[in-house]
Specification:
Layout (H helix, E strand, L loop, with lengths): L1 H9 L12 E4 L6 E4 L1 H6 L7 H11 L14 H10 L25 H11 L13 H16 L1 H15 L2 H15 L5 H13 L4 E3 L15 E3 L5 E6 L17 H9 L3 E6 L6 H13 L10
Parallel strand pairs: 5-6
Antiparallel strand pairs: 1-2, 3-4, 4-5
Amino acid sequence: MRDRLGRFMKGMLGKEHPRWSRKEVKCVWCGKELLRTASQRANCKRAFCNLKHKGKWQSVNCLGKDSSHYGHLLSEESKEKNRIAHLGMHRGGVKKGNIPWNKNKKGCFSNRTIVEMQRSHLGQPSSMKGKHFSEEVVEHNRQAQKLHFQNPGAIQVRKDAQLKKWRDENYREKQMKAILRGNRIKPNKAELRLFSILQKYFPGDYALNVKAEVMILGGKIPDFVNVNGQKKVIELYGDYHHQDEKLENGGDGGRKREEIFAKCGFETLIVWEHELLNEDLLFQKLTRFKFVRRKHSHHQN
């Protein structure tokens, strides 16, 4: 008998079942038709597609006196319990001493997630828009920032972070070029004079590099760089600004700069400003530098 009843009831699925109690209701927010059982209709006066639609409806219709919490004041005991539960809690919901799940983790979000997060903030006003702090709060924040920046520990942290960035050649080169663009560096008269001589006797061999247009070597910017297949650079030393580096004054004649460029595989020629007065001797010096390969640069001064 039970087997016969089971075979009979097997064909009664969905709406054909005698206990089928679902009826169509509409989402209060968007109007989409939903199926709800009798118990769901009895327990919930309003139907929603999801929690997002429910939150939107409540943000519009549950304000002020319409809110279910309006006029309900927490007891002192409840306030103290909530205060203890939130002790040491940061704005992000992480207690002091606990490590957030995404700290120092690169690539924890997919590219699609990053794009969606960016789009969600596009066109949205800042949370601080229209808010004004009192003079007391402004002064308090100013003093707090001042103490933070004067703290030796914070100073050391910023110093170490900047040194770590500066060790990256790409970052260092990018920063140096930005500084040169901001300072509007231009070649001086002596550099333009030497460049005209190079173009006269060796056209197309050297490029002016005072703005680091061509390259940066070892964190330094050579004045002239060979762009015709030779790994050679030329440095122009002014008689006044580089007088301490002259050999007769106890200097190294530019050897330190030469060693820096040599580590990058480049030969260096030091040209002094007073050598520009004798173009014939300077031409001979430049010719020897072009056709003779030497381990060290010329230090004639």
